[in-house]
User: Fold these one by one.
Assistant:
Number 1:
Amino acid sequence: MENIAPSDATGWMPSLDQGGASVHNAVVSVLGSRILGGDYAPGAALPREEELCAMLGVSRTSVREAVKVLSAKGLVEARRRAGVRVLPRDSWRLLDPVVLGWHPSIQDDEELVSGLLEARRIFEPAAAELAARRASAADLAEIERAVVGMRDNIPGDLNAVCQADLAFHKGVIAASHNVVLKGLVGMLEAALRATFLVTNPLMEAQSRALSAHVAVLEAIRVRDTAGARGAMNRLLDIAADDLHARG
Amino acid sequence: MENIAPSDATGWMPSLDQGGASVHNAVVSVLGSRILGGDYAPGAALPREEELCAMLGVSRTSVREAVKVLSAKGLVEARRRAGVRVLPRDSWRLLDPVVLGWHPSIQDDEELVSGLLEARRIFEPAAAELAARRASAADLAEIERAVVGMRDNIPGDLNAVCQADLAFHKGVIAASHNVVLKGLVGMLEAALRATFLVTNPLMEAQSRALSAHVAVLEAIRVRDTAGARGAMNRLLDIAADDLHARG
DNA sequence: TGCGCTTGAGGATCGCGGCCATCACCACGC
DNA sequence: GCGTGGTGATGGCCGCGATCCTCAAGCGCA
């Protein structure tokens, strides 16, 4: 029965503890995390509005807005008399980065991790091939900047390396100029984050990964579609190896 | 300045004209369609809450809930003093079937149609390959039922054929047992609907498509992964041909 | 005198609480 | 067994105050 709001009258702690900066975002985040975490299982019913208000210390307006948002993301369904029930996992918009961000520990969800990696092996090589065909000068510059960012931070700042790695894959997908693939960057972001959490920062692994990234970049630059696809495949092989070795 | 609500006091027309069954769903649907239709371009600001209320004939509560939903789907962003602004298309959750359903005419959006088909050619053959490896008896029965549904309605009910076709592709993706791929069924649904709108019901095309579907089913049944991938590729070749011939 | 930073007021959304309407479900009665 | 009314939940509307971002006017400095 924790309390989100700063509660009563006396003091005023300016910050909210969870999620976004606004009250209803905090409610959305709390309920979403609780659903993804399994506290409210699919098929189960959430507490009534009134109870949620009391539980979270917010007004009905915020709770109702939060329920609407969760409903928009396919997590719950609100019916008139029956209250709010959690929908089965198949209807959850797991490709929504926000929803994926509510997962308490992606790296421990075996089905999700393998599904994400499998999906990456399906569409990232294809994205690289399309990028080799369509990348503009700006796209190439973006990808190259990411590679440079990886190289310059390799022995040191691990966080910067991760961000550059993410920027690299985002750049390749953006260079594919495909609307659907661009809709998958959120999923990719979550997948990479999970990978970074599992894969320890091994020097050798990092240098291998860097050379694979360079190979993808060069293949795209010279418009070698098959080479780009193959280089991306090798890159994902390395990632899968690291993931498997550590898992 | 149309009015969603039944307006004033005298009469009471029970039905809402747009979208779902509830008021806020109607508002969401109207605003979403208007954004997708280009009436509110990316970067532009929506009218103020008060104006939207007057324009749609609903209360601020409904408008605000609708804005929250649209914000959850990445269409708009509400900032305090600046009002509600439409976000760039890249942040729209186009993989959300609801969002895609707001598109006024998918078949006329060249970039979207080609992007959808391209995406299908990337991940549907892969899904067929995975299905050949993992399909359960129930999965196979579901796919087979869809094929039978296509065959039995081929000369007659076009709508039933389309539904069976959709069920077929859904079944293959479900049989792949991949979380990410299952998240793409909404996109697939919109893609198929757009295809059906363009491709006229040619007898020869339908029979060709049917045999291709049967080939995919048989390959999955005998666990022929490469065959399933190839058959799905041929199926998509046919679809692309029909689409191109008519486009 | 011109430019840039600060500060003030305005104005929009945000959040709250109460109210009534609506509708599904259940139990009672015919 | 079926119809009907009670009951309790969500759906929707309204007005209020708080908040805080934005824009622009005003001031200081070179």
Number 2:
Amino acid sequence: MTKSKKAGKGRRAKLPEELTEAEWAIMKVVWEQEPCTAGTVQETLADTRAWAYSTVKTTMDRMAEKGFLAIEKIRNLQLFRARISEVDAKRAELRKTLKRAFDGALTPMMQFLIEHEGLSAEDASHLRELVERATRKKP
Amino acid sequence: MTKSKKAGKGRRAKLPEELTEAEWAIMKVVWEQEPCTAGTVQETLADTRAWAYSTVKTTMDRMAEKGFLAIEKIRNLQLFRARISEVDAKRAELRKTLKRAFDGALTPMMQFLIEHEGLSAEDASHLRELVERATRKKP
DNA sequence: TTGCGTATTCTATTTATGTCGAATATCCTC
DNA sequence: GAGGATATTCGACATAAATAGAATACGCAA
């Protein structure tokens, strides 16, 4: 039988779309090394974050509950893998900023970036390139 | 006697640099109408957020503690005004995203935006314009 | 089969945010 | 100077995030 975690009514609990700070750190490792264990993640992050194993594990368990990670059990081992792509996560993150700080308007945000975050010459030419390509794609 | 809230040692608590969701909503109003009262903010936001006056007030008081807002007292009135500029807030917000999702690399973020958030033809030409101008400024 | 060494589960603490109601203070008008 | 309309202060409660120790389970090797 369908063992639904939360409630009956087909109503799916709104799962968070965005990652917290700690979750980002963890996801990055998972994306790179999946499938991997909590231990691996903890070790990989050791130099950056002084997190105890249990901290990482607890967080990852919660992320699994939220739908960000999937757990595969092998013997007494839990292998985690991502259930959201890096692209989706990035998109969500950017959208949040876009909404919050720029009322959802993309161009003003780009403009802000260009004007306030010094572009190097290379950056600029690279950008020009990208814009070119993007426009050429749809005439 | 000096009734210091926190601690003795001139050690200033690291004040947060970033705004939360609710704080963004409030700041936007303040930036537009400052100086203004909590009541004004509450009313202005009424159609968007069903917040009780005290919710807004409490949040704004906390924002003042954090250094985001300044309070000027006139009679029994409190006038709030921003202590961080919109530009700074935007910058902080973008930097956070930049760090989190793109390891601090600007160009990849721009690239992502260009490639994943459909640019209209106008957007593109506008962008080209901006990039042009930005490069011309520093040869 | 007895342990050793990991891995897992469970629970707990702290801090921040979101959210408000109730009690209190203050001002202006009559 | 009394009353009522506003504002302010305070404390409270819920949830989520960050963090981690303790207790427990499990698999493998001697």
Number 3:
Amino acid sequence: MKKQPLAANLDFPRPYTTVDVAIFSVAGDALRVLLVERSREDGGPFAGCWALPGGFIDIERDADLRHCALRKLREKTGLAAGYLEQLGSWGSATRDPRGWSATHAYFALLPAAAEPRAGANAAEVCWFPVIGKGVRVRLAFDHAEILAAALERLRNKVEYTSLPAFLVPKEFTLTELQRAYETVLGRRLEKSAFRTRVLATRLVEPVDKLRAGPNRPARVYRLSNPGAPVFFARPFSPRGK
Amino acid sequence: MKKQPLAANLDFPRPYTTVDVAIFSVAGDALRVLLVERSREDGGPFAGCWALPGGFIDIERDADLRHCALRKLREKTGLAAGYLEQLGSWGSATRDPRGWSATHAYFALLPAAAEPRAGANAAEVCWFPVIGKGVRVRLAFDHAEILAAALERLRNKVEYTSLPAFLVPKEFTLTELQRAYETVLGRRLEKSAFRTRVLATRLVEPVDKLRAGPNRPARVYRLSNPGAPVFFARPFSPRGK
DNA sequence: TAAGTTAGTTGCAGTGTGCCACTAAGTAGC
DNA sequence: GCTACTTAGTGGCACACTGCAACTAACTTA
């Protein structure tokens, strides 16, 4: 009988459990991710290394995993998430030198206009531009792998969902929305097909405003149903080509 | 300073950590999921209740989460998984009456021919037909929710991937493969479009055999690249209609 | 008034699906 | 051997949406 005596003894060793959040936003025409610098004083691993915001679950305060992720987000940015999705979990004996650990990873999208780091110890928090499958700095733990997975999921979903709508301000023009798509995807989209798709799905509705500028003003839109992403029938470019 | 002294003291309470696996296969033209009956003797919660196979991570034996899921699969079925994918994680203060717990959920697909429960305590293990978003029995913990999520993910992915190829034997006819798709989806597909799609993506390659029967024999195929699922350019029915 | 820039529309070809009809190849019954 | 039946597999056409490209619209600046 190798079975563990479940109720009789729950004191066998448990993994460390953390929650990490990859927080994205766009600035100019670059996608960027929020990173925190790990303390050099507390004696923890990867001191001074950049990492995804996150940390241990607080059993007293966090009702569930999602609340824990929202708390991490709030602590680092002082903002409510436009969008928060569970990404997956990473757990192994070796990812943390202190012992067997598992992290529950989330990714979040913030609107461009939002000014972050409002509520937190700002010196340790910084936006890094996303280049290819990650950032230029070395990340703590397996966070580079987690970030790469987040980017892959994000870029994949952008092909057939309205996720980039969470990266633009509440009111936006269709061109601005298209730019958000292109920033995430790293490639240009066809204006005509983009507009047809967006307008056909009732994703957005016009606001009675025009965005002035040095040329023809653009109609301003907002989300018809903020909070819920829309799924399109097909990806943008039929993957084959 | 509310910060936890990370390295100084790692002894703050940690959640229980488990791994659960939703194991699917097809029998006849029904989709079914493998469940285990929880012990009535060990004093654990939900005694006698049906549950997804799973349990605590064994820090000594499991190198990482995926290995732990593979171990659960092996212990319950005696079989190697045709396909194993991480589904997500569920964690909260209330899902387990013993305290804060988090589970890492996976889902697995087994080929139809495989005879399960070979290596395990068979009396406690049983296939249940999937009806709608779950099974007819009440499940332990939040496993009904996890199973519903697994079914949603599976049915969603079937629309644009070759996942059902992991539900048929190594060699199969195109009609058999199409039946597997239809069984998971719960609706009929167009023969012509199905064959065009499958043959256009080099998902399968013909074996030099014919499947005899009381009518015209069918050509036998196998996967060109077993192990890796194929992604199609579009879902089967453009979701709008 | 002309040039430049961005907003937004229109038309057309290509691609893959949904639908339906058709042919192909075997068995079973007479 | 012929016919009926069943399943395998193919071909044609309409529809929907994308990709591409050319066009018009509206505003600013020189």
